[in-house]
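Lecture notes, unit on protein representations.

Consider one protein chain, 176 amino acids long.
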Amino acid sequence: MPDRTGGQYDGCTIALHWITAALIAEQWIGAHLIDDFAGFTKVAVRSTHVSFGLLLGLVLIARLIWRNSGGRRLHASDPPLLEALAKITHWGLYVLMVLVVSLGVSMVTTHGVNYFGFHLTGLAPRDRALGHDLQSWHATAANAILVLAGIHAAAALFHHYVWRDGVLRRMLPGWR
């Protein structure tokens, strides 16, 4: 397989990419399972979702700092139009991740949460309409991440299996 990509991303960039992907998948699946439980198990699953959401926020901050300070930049591997679409997709994922995490934090700080049995009080009186809206926006943005991440993954697989140009390999660990 010829490599026309000009190398591979650094280990930190690769690790942050795959940690982000795993957290997004876990968060999306976990969110859809919360209501399948009852009692303390439901509280624990929701609390885990909140914890991993905060972890996703921290990983996102680390990614943005690393990307703008020490992360390796690779040359474009696509024609200009496809490269522009790739950049739009990447920045769209970043914007959606910031939005999802921000909405999740807003839900917790506005209304509070039962966190592993400890009730953390919100900053605002309980407003069911606002809570419903925040949850709906949070879920919609999370679904949009999944769609955009699917497009991103499909493009990487297309590069790998159809064009055979090495683009996917630059984000895989151990291909140095």
